[in-house]
Amino acid sequence: xxxxxxxxxxxxxxxxxxxxxxxxxxxxxDVREEEVFGxxxxxxxxxxxxxxxIIDLVESPGKITSGEVWxxxxxxxxxxxxxxxxxVDGEFVDIRQLTVRERRALRxxxxxxxxxxxxxxxxxxxTVGEQIAEAVEVQKRARSNPRSTRSRTQGYGLANLISxxxxxxxxxxxxxSHAEAVSLLEQVGIPDPADRAEEYPHQFSGGxxxxxxxxxxxxxxxxxLIADEPTxxxxxxxxxxxxxxxxxxxxxxxxxxxxxxxxxxxVARMCDRVGVMYAGELVERGSLEDVFDRPVHPYTKxxxxxxxxxxxxxxxxxxxxxxxxxxxxxxxxDRCYFxxxxxxxxxxxxxxxxxDDAGGSDEHEARCVLTEMEYDESRAxxxxxxxxxxxxxxxxxxxxx
Length: 401
Ligand SMILES: Nc1ncnc2c1ncn2[C@@H]1O[C@H](COP(=O)(O)OP(=O)(O)OP(=O)(O)O)[C@@H](O)[C@H]1O
Ligand code: NI
Description:
Layout: E1 3-16, E2 19-32, E3 36-40, H1 47-54, E4 62-72, H2 74-81, E5 88-89, E6 92-94, H3 100-105, E7 111-114, H4 128-144, H5 148-166, H6 169-172, H7 175-187, H8 193-196, H9 206-218, E8 224-228, H10 236-253, E9 256-261, H11 264-270, E10 273-278, E11 281-287, H12 288-293, H13 298-304, E12 365-366, H14 383-400
Parallel strand pairs: 3-9, 3-10, 7-8, 8-9
Antiparallel strand pairs: 1-2, 1-4, 4-6, 5-6, 10-11, 11-12
Helix pairs in contact: 4-5, 4-7, 4-9, 7-9, 9-10
The structure holds adenosine-5'-triphosphate and nickel (II) ion.
Domain ABC transporter: 5-304
Organism: Haladaptatus litoreus
Subunit structure: The complex is composed of two ATP-binding proteins (NikD and NikE), two transmembrane proteins (NikB and NikC) and a solute-binding protein (NikA).
């Protein structure tokens, strides 16, 4: 399969009172068409910020500070080529070079996102059917417009304007959109969809709400669905049902899914390829088999640790001693961020390891010196030695400032 998305050197920072937080540091990865790409890592490793950065939903004090997000869309590429050739590479468009409006217009028909908490996407005071019908309506305006992207922006803006300011939303949703909403509810496995469409979110169970949110996200027929811990809040049986649903929908629609999760059982069950994040960076990526059966990075190995049984949907990441650093730029030394927790840290780990980023989506890569050398016990960093070293490094940084 060819790539749908090529993320290059994407960095996102939060400018806080404590200082600059490097939440995502020069991310490089591809998402192929029709695949499920998993992103795993401990809490605070930057998974959600990475997702939000792709669809341009990072909020202040956060800011995308660099990088490119190349999205394969021949129509958009054709439209963009004439006035912004530098934003186009063959059938790919760097969405970071589009205007805010243009990027916003891609939400729905190109990218949509679902979250752990369905109520972050659903409005409690509007019936479920109505909300999904609105999403359908927005999409229809976009599609009916021949000059899709730029007009799509206007269509989307207009729909928003009408729904939010001029008319109550119920008035502009056509019968047809309503019928489509019902069929979407049916598609995501909601029984009696016509009746359930008339209900409000609070009348739905957790699993049904999750399905409704998925239906809403599908209304735009997105090329990429980003699912951020979509099943974490659900009990195990419902989790499995929702994951099966996502897998089935992926197959039916041919969309790609970027699945963010703590749960390695979920990754094993769902994903074709995996990226492992640590301290704002991708530290390993490759096919599910590469990463799970032949992990290179000690962090990945640590996560996989004593993973009991991949069939068991419950396993969580194994706790590794120590914590994810808090990603404050001033406190991040120029060395492997995992070194102080790593059982295989060596002298070489006192400089920051690189990862081969030019490699395409077929490559298995890890950000670790162990890709270049065998572990050598005589070069091991004793923990006191390590602390002394990192202390020195920090002092040096401060003196340079
Ligand atoms: N609004 C914000 N202001 C300041 N820092 C933030 C903000 N949002 C996220 N961060 C920081 O960015 C880093 C990455 O956070 P992110 O939410 O992406 O982690 P995550 O891997 O998704 O974790 P979790 O598994 O807990 O959801 C963290 O250090 C977090 O503190
Ligand atoms: Ni998160």
